[in-house]
Structures are given as structure tokens and as C-alpha cells.
Amino acid sequence: MAEEVLSQSEIDSLLSALSTGEMAAEDLKVEENEKKVRVYDFKRALRFSKDQIRSLSRIHENFARLLTTYFSAQLRTYVNISVASVDQLPYEEFIRSIPTMTILNIFSVSPLEGRILLETNPNVAYAMLDRVLGGKGSSVNKIDNLTEIETTIMSQLFERALDNYQEAWGSVVEIDPVMEDFEVNPQFLQMVSPNETVVVVSLNTTIGEASGMINFCIPHVVLEPILPKLSVHYWMQKQQTKERNEEEYQALSKTVKKAHVDVKAILGEAEMSIQQFLRLQTDDVIHLNQAIDQPMTLKVDQEKKFWIQPGKLRNKMAVQVLEEFREGAEDDE
């Protein structure tokens, strides 16, 4: 068991109690010999380390920024979304903590196993729905009698938002979020066993004048294959690898820049038969396919790279680069 470290104020109070006689040294020995027992609740098993929780918080902070931009563009109103908390608790406790009638979107995150639950407070959900339908963004909680049109609109709105979720996880793992189900009553939803540990990421959400929470419920079974990637060691190792790759790239770039290449300015080209070639004599003129008012080609190691025009520089023949050669440019001439 790890030893408990006392603060300076606690040490001063202890010394003062000993000096004044309020506490005897024998009492300290007796207390030290007593077994220290801490209550452990197996229903609230902590299966995620603090480093992993911090990594999840960092991922969802990035997602919150992306989601703010997305909803601002879709709803054309003031939107502010931020991470309020990241906790681990039993699935049953999470279900009891959300409203009896709410907006529940269930989606898979292939290639990871299991499904993630996205719960949106009715105040926020109806403010979004009102804005999509052209209203001012007022919230009316009538979640118990959603129409098919309202259900479809809400599902599509959150389904498109999953692209941002994919981007937020991109630095850890490539996922493909797919919306699978829509529900309004959490009692009808059983994703995992009641005692299964889940991570609940709560997002403070403000849509216009309405505010509420958006909660992500991520079961342990979903995150289990990628838990090593959520540690600080992985992030540090990844950063070191990135820095090492950058150093190798710089070294390789310097070496490549010193390499010599064969550069040719093509004045023009012509085609002739072998018989014509054998009949060539002094002072014969070869007709090139290069017009005098068209740019010439500069080849680098037999590959066309630039359009050029001939000229002189300090009484020496030279060419001036006009623009970079692009495939298909010849057809446009």
C-alpha cells in the first residue's frame, strides 16, 4: 500500500499536538499498527486510468470544437459546446441519471466492437429541430409523441455530425461511425450489462437561448482494444516518432538537393524516315514542329517540367521559365 504523504500544515499541527500534550507518541504507534481498510465498491470498478480518461477528454474537446462549427453552420444561430466532465460509472447508473424521455442515438464505430450511445437533452434537441424547420430555436418538450418527420430530421442531423466524431478520433484510430438506431425511452435500451463500466462524456451545449447536455456513453468493450493508445506513453512515443521522421525527412531532403540532374531545353522536334535521314547533307534544313510564337519545353531527366522561352543573359544563351508543365496542357494549346 502506498504511504500517505502529509502536507506541511498537517506536520506542524501534529508536532504542536505532541508538544502541548494533546496527543501522545504511543497513540501514534497504536494508530500506525491498526489495519487501514478502504471500502471498495465492485459495482463501480475503475477500469480506466487517469491518463486514459485525460486522453478521452482531449479527444472529445476536439470533437466539441468541430461540433460547434458544424451546428453553427447547420442551424445558423449561436452555438457553444464544451466538455463538462468525463467519468466512468456502471451502465445502470448512467441510464438512471438521464431523463425518462429523451433523444437517444445508437451508432457503431467499426472496426471497434460494440456500440456508442449519444443522448441529447430534449431542450437542446427541440431547439435544433425548431431551427432546422425555420423557427427561432425555442424548445418545447413533447418528446413522447415525436412524428415520423421529426424523428427523421433529428436522426439525419446527428448522423451527419458523426463525420466530426470520426475526425476527432483520427489521431488515435480510424473509425467509421454508422447510425444504427433511434430511441426516446432509455428503459427500452439495453446495450451492455447493467454493471458494465462505461465512460460518460458530458458536453455543455447551448443552442441560441436553449441549453442542456449531450452525453456520450462509451462501453469498456468498445475502448478495450485501443486502451494502450490512450496512455500518455503512447502520445509521447508518437510525438517522438513524428520528430524522428521529421529529422529523417530533413536529412534526406538535404541529400536529394545535392543530386545532379540532366536539364535540356528542347528547341523543337521533327520526324523523318530512315531514308530521309540517310540522305541528309550539309546545309539541309530540318523543319521543326515548334512554332516561333509558342513556348518551348524544358526537360529534367527526360521528363517535361517547365514551359520556357529562349533568350540571352550576359551574352550567353539562356531560357526563361514561364510556368510549370501540367499534364494535358498541350491539348489546351
The global form is elongated
The CATH architecture category of the largest domain equals 3-Layer(aba) Sandwich
User: Percent range for helical residues?
Assistant: 25-40%
CATH class of the largest domain: Alpha Beta
Number of domains: 3
Give a quick rundown of the structure.
This protein has 333 residues and is of the alpha+beta class. It has ten helices and ten strands. The relative contact order is 0.12.
Task: Give me some keywords for this one.
single chain; 333 residues; alpha+beta; Chemotaxis protein chec; Surface presentation of antigens (SPOA); 3 domains; 6-stranded antiparallel beta sheet; 10 helices; 10 strands; 25% strand; elongated
Please give the structural blueprint.
Elements: H1 8-20, H2 25-33, H3 50-75, E1 79-90, H4 91-97, E2 103-110, E3 115-120, H5 122-132, H6 148-168, E4 176-183, E5 197-207, E6 210-219, H7 220-223, H8 232-257, E7 263-266, H9 274-278, E8 296-300, E9 303-313, E10 316-324, H10 329-332
Antiparallel strand pairs: 1-5, 2-3, 2-4, 3-6, 5-6, 7-8, 8-9, 9-10
Helix pairs in contact: 3-6
